[in-house]
Amino acid sequence: MNSILKDIQTKIHTAIKENLPDVSFGDLEEGGKVYYMNGKNGTEFDWFVNEHLPAFMVFYDDKEKLGAAKAYIYQDGGMIIYLYDDHGRHPAKEVSTFLDVEESDMLRLAVCLRCNADDRRIWDSAIDRIVSDVIPDEHTVTEFIDHRKYYEPSIIRREILGKLCIVSKKITRDGWKVGFMLREEPQDDRDSGWQFMAGDEDDSYLNTVENVELCAVGSIARIDPVIMKYIDYPVGARFVRKSTGEFEEDKNQRSYMEKWK
Which residue, 200, 231, 238, 258, could crosslink 250 as a Cys pair with Cβ 3.0–4.6 Å? Predict the structure, then answer.
């Protein structure tokens, strides 16, 4: 097994021993085997878009088979382990640690897992069932890096989700969905340029500082996921809500208003 995978397994097992004292490895699926959960997004998507490998998990060995541990390994070797007690029903602890590896080693591991898991259609498998001790050659690594171009739209959306926007408190406080959205020139690198409103605010309301706030675009997307279809539109974009699941270009029409809570 790849030495980094061995280290990942050791750190997950150590975290379980130290933070789930009432859980024995006999309570875990296959005695606590670590699974590589690439079946949802695939190795390349998570590596390029989310900047980490797909999750590594250990499961409880019971009817529901919920997770006892979930770990994310980032491109720089950073590692976050989420632990769950009550047979996976309750979050118990979050452990942050670091793998002693170079970023180039992490890249080669990602390439290895793509080639020997994803490309062979091996999904959500125990890591000891994946051939992982073969070092990919430079051509394969270069090909993997070049594939980043296929994920650019998703990468851009992720970056926007982490930036700031101006939002009416009719959305965050009063429970309305986004009824109107426009994108202006960002003020700095942290600013997305987006403004989100319920749709019936007048100038007096919006010019009162207590009625608007700054927050991450991602927090508004969690409230109203429909905006995800539009957040990578350029500066100058203006949309009015047309229905529950659709916006249209703003032409001074009345927005469709609906509450999310």
Answer: 238
